[in-house]
Amino acid sequence: MTQKNNKKRILEGHKKVGKKFIPPVVQWPGFHEINWVNDVIPELIWIAVLQQKIGFRPANEAMADLHKMYIEICDTKFLHSFFSSYEALGETAKDSFRSRFRESQHYEKVFEGLIDLQYYYPNHPLQFLYADRVIHESEVNIQVVKDSIQGVLERRSECGTMAQAAVLFNSMITGKFNAPVDSIFWEFEELDNYPNTEKSLQLASSIRAMINAFMDKEVRNFDCQWVKSFWQNSFIIEPPTLNIFK
Q1: Which pLDDT value is given to residue 11?
Q2: pLDDT reported for residue 212
Q3: Does 103 reside within a domain?
Q4: What is the pTM of this model?
Q5: Packing angle of the helix pair 158-173, 56-73 (nearest 10 deg)
Q6: pLDDT: is 23 or 180 the higher one?
Q7: Of 99 and 13, which is predicted with more confidence?
Q8: Please, which residues have CB within 8 angstroms of residue 119's CB and are 6 or more apart in sequence?
């Protein structure tokens, strides 16, 4: 296959708007622009931290267990891969969730993955799972959170891509998102090759585009205080500096 034909195949279905090529999935009704920094990073930061600390596959397995339990206890319209969904749980649901998840093989793994977030952001939506655990400063590292923020901020990085992929993957296995049978979304194993193959790049592009749909009001808890306060808390933990003499 020639380079020209190969490029044509990859861009098949894309719509050219100015100098940009818009993926087919973004052309669906209901897609809209989102503020990546303000809206998405607070929703994905827990996934990025968890994946960084315990690895992509172990983190995804633990999250799958967490999400299935969420549905069994309190199946809401909210997309449970987003951090804000857990803030919508009532106290009774939280008590049940905590009691059941303590019996899970992933309970300690999730704590290991979230310990830095738990220490520096004690108001995060899953803090109720480990509210009785004492954490000492010597056990945590703020750099883990900072690296995760940077990774999700660069949404085409491996960190950003894997965090977004986890949202889609767990939405599929829990029935919140039904991808077409022949869709590229079913070829998640290709992400092991990201960003070194054309198919992995195509899959990552489709995943990034799909996140826009998941940010719709119908599946996201817009009243979540965590999303509203995340950056404010971050600036308190480490105030931004401006070097005017540089």
Answers
A1: 56
A2: 75
A3: yes
A4: 0.82
A5: 40
A6: 180
A7: 99
A8: 135, 137, 139, 140
**20 part of a folded domain:** no
CA-to-CA distance for 153 and 182, rounded, in angstroms?
A: 31
122-126, 142-146, 178-182, 223-227 — which is least confidently predicted? 178-182
Q: Which two tokens stand for residue 99?
A: 């009691």
Q: Which residue has the tokens 């000492």?
A: 136
DSSP state of 154: S
| Residues paired with residue 16 on neighbouring β-strands, in sequence order | 21
Count Cβ atoms within 10 A of the Cβ of residue 170 and give its class: 0-12 exposed, 13-18 middle, 19 or more buried. buried
- The pair phi, psi for residue 121, each rounded to 5°, is -130, 70
Q: Which domain holds residue 183?
A: 34-217
Within a domain: 192: yes
Task: Using the Cα atoms of residue 182, residue 183, residue 184 and residue 189 in order, give the sign of their dihedral.
Answer: negative
Confidence of residue 5 (pLDDT cuts 50, 70, 90): low
Task: Give me the pLDDT at residue 165, please.
Answer: 94
- CB contact burial 1-25 (16+ within 10 A = b; e otherwise): eeeeeeeeeeeeeeeeeeeeeebeb
Number of domains in the chain: 1
